[in-house]
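Lab channel / #folding
Pinned by the channel admin:
"Please post every new chain as: sequence first, then the structure tokens as a reply. Keep commentary short and put observations after the output so the thread stays searchable."

First post following the new format, from NK:
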Amino acid sequence: QMLICFLIFHRSNRELWTILLGRSSFREAAQITEELNQHSQRLLEGLSYYKLPSANSAAKVKADKNVSAPLKELALRVSKFLSLDEEQSVQLLQCYLQEDYRGTRDSVKVSRKHRARM
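Reply from TO:
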């Protein structure tokens, strides 16, 4: 139930950008206003929304049973590379895989195997 609540009320930065550009499914001004008001602080913060890595965040990612081991591993590497909070790295990767990745599940597995050999 908490996950459903998170999915309903949490918008990715990409989704917020889509709303701002007028490319979302929202057509009613009241819907758009509500979404923008709900996330106004994040919009105002801009890039400062993103946090630096922390031991606490890394521990939460490692303990999260809803995140697969390969995604955790990649998120922790991304976090280190970008100096980005570990939980936010997971969110970033999940958004990428859901919205932008054009390969198949099998090609992700092949890429992972290839990387392991390097």
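NK: The chain has eight helices and no strands.
TO: also worth noting, The two ends are 41 Å apart (CA to CA).
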